[in-house]
Amino acid sequence: MSSRTRARGRRAAxxxxxxxxxxxxxxxxxxxxxxxxxxxxxxxxLGFAGRLLWKSRSALAPxxxxxxxxxxxxxxxxxxxxxxxxxxxxALAPGAWxxxxxxxxxxxxxxxxxxxxxxxxxxxxxxxxxxxxxFGPFAGxxxxxxxxxxxxxxxxxxxxxxxx
Length: 164
Prior knowledge:
Layout: E1 15-20, E2 31-36, H1 41-55, H2 61-79, H3 87-104, H4 110-135, H5 142-163
Antiparallel strand pairs: 1-2
């Protein structure tokens, strides 16, 4: 390729250059067709939403976990309902942890309150996982419980995250 038909310097980011090689014969001149790329409105909107989500990814951690839990329970329910019973021992673990911590490191006041609250929240979440995997994530009141848990977790995360 001769140096006259090769692109020189930096090209604009939104322009694609198509180089048509030199034609043989008399009076044929090399030429370059430049086609500007205009992104569609859908691509612009998706890019804006993606950048916004990426910038606030740490603030939306509970949302990602809630959507992951919803998808996992839907898949487990679709595969077989008894997969939910796997969560039964996990649902008992926070209560056991609370008992062990109360025996080994007894505390009173706010520490005990936070331990009880954390154990209750994790137990409620795992029981929801169990019931949603057995009966389906949108069966009966499970959808409303998921929505309320998601809103509460997101609100609590936005408040607590500032103090960490």
